[in-house]
Amino acid sequence: MTEDKSSPAPSDAGVTPARRSGLIAIVGRPNVGKSTLLNALVGQKVSITSAKAQTTRHRITGVRTLDEAQFVFVDTPGFQTKHNAALNRNLNRTVHGVLGDVDLVLFVVEAGRFGLDDAKVLSLLPEDRPVVLIANKLDAVHRRAELAPWLKSMQERRNFAEFVPLSAKKAADVTRLFKILKPYLPEQEWFYEEDALTDRSEKFLASELIREKLFRLTGDELPYTSTVVIDKWEDEGELRRISASIIVERDAHKGMVIGQGGELLKRIGSEARQELEHLFDGRVFLELWVKVRSGWADSEEHLRSYGYE
């Protein structure tokens, strides 16, 4: 018996995996849960959520770094298919601009549902990017067996890179999604520091969080063409003094926001302040005003002054 003197196979032990990083767009019609999914992926609220459709209006970037991989998620406004105001055109330009830059697209729909607005969004997705079909709100599907024929019909619409049924509210589903997406990230250096969560400023996050409370507490009565502008921001040690204006289009809308005896506006301010203090880990003094700017949503000049891209 001869002795094998050949060199042992090289070991991978101690070899650091190459870093990966990529831009991932989250797209879909309004109110399919894109912002909820983004917040779950980042692990912290960076995008506002509301039952009111068309809540997200800006390109919002959330970052999550896991091991050697950095996922840079871009939450987009839902494609606007029903209105042609300047605000809606602006939102659609934002979505198109995002899609030209990304490495991967997450197309979010409600599990078991696919309507005309979903089809319009799908038709606008780039052919030269891998698209992952996210069937969100899986927890709302009572009979999972009904998903099989629906999935077959979806596969006939496009050759999706992956099909992922999930609930954005379940941590295990979000963890599973990361494992599915990781191989699609290019091998390259990270875009952000390891502990980064978003590229948005504290001022932007504050305005969005106030807007979330506005929509949640006014329900369907207030038109979605209302926005929030930060007028003044002062840091005094651990205290942030914030003055903000809620912009509405009509005097009647102003009355809705203020409420009887100013109670609703007080509640909006109180709930926003509490969440801002949690987000910033410090005390916040928040002052809110309501201003009427007729036709602002159809004015390109107003949109620019209010920070729309």
From TrEMBL:
The GO annotation for biological process reads: ribosomal small subunit assembly
Q: Which Gene3D superfamilies match?
A: 3.30.300.20, P-loop containing nucleotide triphosphate hydrolases
Region annotated G5, chain positions: 166-168
Against CDD domains, the record matches this protein to: Era, KH-II_Era
Domain of life of the native organism: Bacteria
- Which stretches does the entry tag as region G2? 54-58
Which residues does the record give as GTP binding sites?
Answer: 28-35, 75-79, 136-139
What are the GO MF terms of this UniProt record? GTP binding; GTPase activity; ribosomal small subunit binding; small ribosomal subunit rRNA binding
Annotated region described as G1, given as residue ranges: 28-35
Record-level GO cellular component terms: cytosol; plasma membrane
Where is this gene product found? Answer: Cytoplasm; Cell membrane
Q: Provide the residue span(s) of the region labelled G4.
A: 136-139
Q: Which residues form the Era-type G domain?
A: 20-187
- Keywords attached to this entry: Cell membrane, Cytoplasm, GTP-binding, Membrane, Nucleotide-binding, Ribosome biogenesis, RNA-binding, rRNA-binding
**Chain residue ranges for the region called G3:** 75-78
Domain KH type-2, first and last residues per copy: 210-294
Q: According to Swiss-Prot or TrEMBL, what is its membrane topology?
A: Peripheral membrane protein
Main subcellular location:
cytoplasm
What's the family? Belongs to the TRAFAC class TrmE-Era-EngA-EngB-Septin-like GTPase superfamily. Era GTPase family.
Share what the entry says about its subunit structure, partners included. Monomer.
- Function recorded in the entry: An essential GTPase that binds both GDP and GTP, with rapid nucleotide exchange. Plays a role in 16S rRNA processing and 30S ribosomal subunit biogenesis and possibly also in cell cycle regulation and energy metabolism.
Name the record gives this protein: GTPase Era
| Species name | Roseateles asaccharophilus
